[in-house]
Structures are given as C-alpha cells and as structure tokens.
From TrEMBL:
A Gene Ontology molecular function term of the record: D-arabinono-1,4-lactone oxidase activity
A GO CC term attached to the entry: membrane
Name of this protein: L-galactono-1,4-lactone dehydrogenase, mitochondrial
Annotated ranges, domain FAD-binding PCMH-type: 94-265
Pathway(s) annotated for this protein in UniProt: Cofactor biosynthesis; L-ascorbate biosynthesis
Entry keyword Oxidoreductase: yes
Length: 584
C-alpha cells in the first residue's frame, strides 16, 4: 500500500527529475526485492566506502593541530549507498538526512493510508516539501512523506479568483497553470520551487507593506491528521484551528489540499537604483506607502543601499521608455576585473576549488562570480569588503527598469549554498512607520564593523502587512500593523569540509551577536524556515521561553496532542522548540 518514487541522492535531483519527467512517473514499493550476488557485493563495497567517509568526516570535525593547517577533507557525497536508503539534502546544502522511509503518495487516499498506518505503528512520517528551508525544518531520518506526486490544480473559480490545488504543486507550476484564467498569486518569495503546502506552513513571505505573508492567501485547507482523519478547516469552519494550523509547521496534519485567494494577473515595472542611508531615511515612508512591492539590499562596509520597487504598469502611460546607461557586460566588468586581480594573490585556492578558465568566467552571472571571489578567502574581512564594494558598483551600473509579469519580476537570485538567518519585527503602521526598521539596520551595520565580521552582501530587508495566523512571526490583531524582515547571510562557496566548517562557525558567531544585541530590543523573531535549534541546554531553554512569550505554544501543543498524539508528524526540531509533557 505504501508507495514511493525512485530513490534520489538528494531532493534537488528529485526536483530536476520531476520537472523534466512529468509523464514518466513510476512509483514503486520502498521494500527492496531479493538481492543478487552483484547487489550484495555492491552493498558491502558501499558500506566500506561509507565507513571510510565517516572516519574522514569525524577526523576533520575535531580541532586541527598546528602542523595540520593545510589538510583538507572532501565530502563523500556520492559513495554507493544501500538500495533502500534515501539521502535528502536541503537546497542551501546545510542539512542532510538519510532515511529508509521516504514516501510519495499519488492520491489523498494513499496519503490517508500512510498517515493511518504511521499512527497505528507510531512510526514517524514527517511532512517535507521541496527541501528549500535553510534549516531543514521538514527533515528527519525517522521517516518522511512528500507530496510531489500530488501536484494537480483541482478547481478554478475565475469569478472569485480562487483556486484549489493539491498541496504538492510547486509555486511556478501553479502560476503557469492558472495564468490562462488571468489570475496569479498575490505575492511571491524569492524563488518558485516551493511546494504550496510547505510555503504556507512555514509562513513564507514576499515583500510589500500592504501585502501579508503568503499564509494569508489561504482561505481553506484539507488536513490529513493521524487521530481524526481528514478534516477541512476554514475561517467559517473551525476558525480557531484554522488560524493555528494555517502556519502549523507541518505538526498538526499533512496539508493535502489548499484553496487560495488569487488576484488579477498584472504586468509590473521593476525599478532598481542605488541609494544611501541618508536618502533612505528621507524617503522611507514614501517608499513603503507608494510602492506595491519594495525591498532594500544593504551592502556591509559601504553606505550603498540598493532599492528595488515593483508596481503595476500604468494603463495611461504604459511602461517606462528609459534605456539603461550600461549594458549587463559593462555592469559585470568591475567584478570580473576584481576576479582577475584576485587570481594573482589566491592562485592556489582557486586551483583547489576548480575555478573556471577566463573564457568561462565571462559566461558567469553576478552571483556565480561572487561565489568565485568569496571562495578565495571567505573569512578575510578585507577581501570580503572588496567583494562587497564590487557588488555596490555592479548595482550602480545595473540601475534601470524591467517590465514583466509578477511571477517573472518578483524573484531574486539568492546565490548558492549558504547559511542565513532572517528575523521579523514590528515596524509601526503604514500610515505611521516607527522607523525601527532602519534603526535596526544601522545598529546591525555598526555591530558588523565593530566586531570585524566578514559579512558579505546583501543584507536583504523586506516588509509585509500582518498575518492573522497565530504562529506567524508577523501575527498581529491590529489590521494596519506592518513588519520588517531582515536577513543576514554567509555563503558556502566551497566543498572543502574544513573551510565549510570554519564559515559555519563564523556565521553562528555573527548570528549570535545579532541575537544578543538586537532581537529582544526590537521584538525580533526568526523565520520558521531559518531558525536553528541551539545545542547548548541553557540557550535552548531561553529560546523556548522566548517563543512562549510570542506564540500560543500551549494551544499549539494541545492541538498537536489532539490531532497527532504520537507525534508521528514531528521531528527533533519541533520537539525541541515546543516540548510537550503530554507527548506519548
């Protein structure tokens, strides 16, 4: 009865397969057949290589002696694995689990059977979407259920602009399928590969002070729960549970179907220009109130602030006629020049990272070039400052306008593997911004410079209206409240295990400083897809207490214990963040 898709070595490879082979899906049982002699031989060879890889990883996890500074460990990501073992890695390359239970139902009936059996056996089946959460919130080695094969548009109400979909449908797939009806989603996050169930459950968001987080677009949901079976909830039908479960972190039931309130499909004009904090302060209220979408990209160790606004094309004036001053090639030239200059200093590091030759460098995008620059010396503050200044120059020469549909315009190239921490905090109201959002940034920049943090760009700042979902970081009972979202980042541009470990340690030091200096004073809470569970017991206890002050943790745990008494939909992260004495 339990069905599974072909095992992939990472969720990213599964996504690529699913996108290109929609008409060749052949699910089969996760239980392996009788092994052949060759299969047995391959299995034991795989175990041997896995043991060697584990030994190497363990060795490089401990402090290095002074005479071992130049030693290097390579990740053994492609060692042969047992046929029934699935390796699932999140998009940012920061979390990975191996499990023998990775189930992909093709219908709600199959999903109901999976949840029922998991409940009876007390076997975990944590819901996981596209694996895009930087903290791997959907991952657990105990077992997962993924709805990528439940990806259909079920109905469209063109008049009411509403669409009902299976929760495994990806954002881009949904948008492509409903554009013929002249409708689209109200807002978008930076990328489009999220499954609808996942993007809603973690309280993801786009930008625009008049626009709420994406969970507010949900007007009804169908949840498959372990204890009460399949239930339908909305603000008319069980509103208390609806507003709790809408941003439920996958812990109250597997979201099987979602009805979304859409909007008319519009062409937008994107305007990108370089500013500075002095001018931003003068125009901040105007930027928030007069633009449908607006975000700032702050560049550490410079006064540069990239402003990106998006608004509907004027029906009277049409799209702007302005032509860019610089071509894309001219905008990239300064970054390429820095790369060639840096090659002379960091030739050995570039050779070790397998950097492309000059011809290939000319074909790289800006974010790819930034990765190639940072990999040379990612924790050297002076080197990072040079890269940041080159980024500021790139954006100065990229000023101009772009016209396209909202699903084309409202994206952002986030770069490659990375660590990220994003906080959400109140910023007053649209009619009366508190200016706390800019004060937060100023203090953050001062902290970076004071502590000599090798902080790369950008520090992305976005805004949303409030959410009525009680577990949303942007929850407020006041309709006119607005919230600012600020993300700090450190890239992982290398596969060198030692260097990745050093970057990781530096990032968590960076994050800890922002937490200690800013979070409490600004009532800032991390995005659910980016919160990391502390290993230290005292820090964990402090986090648990802090979450209880902001969120209805007791009500959430009560609902979990009623709908999922065995916590089969949970994982270590949820149990640590929301400990419950009633869990069985």
């Amino acid at each position: 009865m339990l069905r599974s898709f072909i095992s992939k070595r990472s969720l990213q490879s599964f996504l690529r397969y699913h996108h290109h082979h929609q008409h060749h899906r052949r699910p089969f049982s996760t239980t392996p057949g009788p092994p052949t002699a060759d299969a047995e031989l391959r299995k034991y060879i795989g175990y041997t290589l896995l043991l060697v890889a584990s030994g190497a990883a363990t060795y490089y996890s401990f402090p290095f002696p002074e005479n071992a500074r130049d030693k290097k460990a390579q990740l053994f990501r492609y060692a042969p694995l047992p046929d029934d073992l699935h390796t699932v890695t999140n998009w940012s390359g920061t979390h990975e689990v191996r499990t023998r239970t990775f189930l992909q139902p093709e219908s709600i009936e199959q999903l109901e059977g999976i949840v029922k059996e998991g409940h009876e056996r007390k076997h975990k089946i944590r819901p996981v979407g596209s694996g895009l959460s930087p903290n791997g919130i959907g991952l657990t080695r105990a077992g997962m259920v993924n709805l990528a094969l439940m990806d259909k548009v079920l109905s469209v109400d063109k008049e009411k602009k509403r669409v009902t979909v299976q929760a495994g449908i990806r954002v881009q797939q949904l948008v492509d399928e409903i554009k013929e009806y002249g409708i689209t989603l109200q807002n978008f996050a930076s990328i489009r590969e999220q499954q609808i169930g996942g993007i809603v459950q973690v309280g993801a968001h786009g930008t625009g002070a008049r626009l709420p987080p994406i969970d507010e677009q949900v007007i009804s949901m169908k949840l498959v729960t372990p204890a009460k079976g399949t239930i339908e909830i909305s603000k008319e039908k069980d509103p208390e549970l609806f507003y709790l479960a809408r941003c439920g972190l996958g812990g109250l039931g597997v979201v099987a179907e979602v009805t979304l309130q859409c909007v008319e499909r519009q062409e937008l004009v994107e305007h990108t220009f370089l500013s500075n904090m002095k001018d931003i302060k003068k125009n901040h209220k105007k930027f928030l109130s007069e633009n449908k979408h607006v975000k700032y990209l702050h560049i550490p160790y410079t006064d540069a602030v990239v402003v990106v606004t998006c608004n509907p094309v004027s029906k009277l004036r049409g799209p702007p006629k302005h032509k860019p001053i610089y071509t894309t090639e001219e905008a990239l030239q300064h970054v390429r020049d820095l790369y060639q200059e840096s090659l002379k200093k960091y030739r050995s590091q570039v050779a070790a990272s397998g950097s492309p030759d000059e011809r290939e460098v000319d074909e790289l995008s800006f974010t790819e070039l930034r990765d190639k620059l940072l990999v040379m010396d990612p924790l050297n503050k002076e080197h990072v400052i040079k890269v940041n200044k080159a980024e500021a120059e790139y954006w100065r020469k990229s000023e101009g306008y772009r016209v396209g549909w909202s699903d084309e315009i409202l994206g952002f190239d986030c770069g490659g593997h990375q660590w990220v921490s994003e906080t959400c905090f109140p910023a007053g109201t649209l009619s009366k911004p508190s200016m706390k959002d800019l004060e937060y940034i100023e203090e953050l920049m001062q902290l970076i410079e004071k502590e000599s943090v090798p902080a790369p760009a950008p520090i992305e700042q976005r805004w949303t209206a409030c959410s009525k979902s009680r577990m949303s970081p942007a929850y407020s009972s006041a309709d006119d409240d607005i919230f600012s979202w600020v993300g700090i980042i450190m890239y992982l541009p290398t596969m060198d295990a030692k260097q990745r470990k050093q970057i990781t340690e530096e990032f968590f030091h960076y994050r800890h400083m922002t937490q200690a200096q800013l979070w409490d004073r600004y009532s800032a809470f991390e995005h659910w897809a980016k919160i990391e569970v502390p290993k230290d017991k005292e820090e964990l206890a402090a986090l648990q207490a802090r979450l209880k002050k902001k969120f209805p943790v007791d009500a959430y745990n009560q609902a979990r214990n009623e709908l999922d008494p065995n916590h089969i939909l949970s994982n270590n992260m949820l149990e640590k963040l929301f400990p419950s004495s009633e869990a069985q």
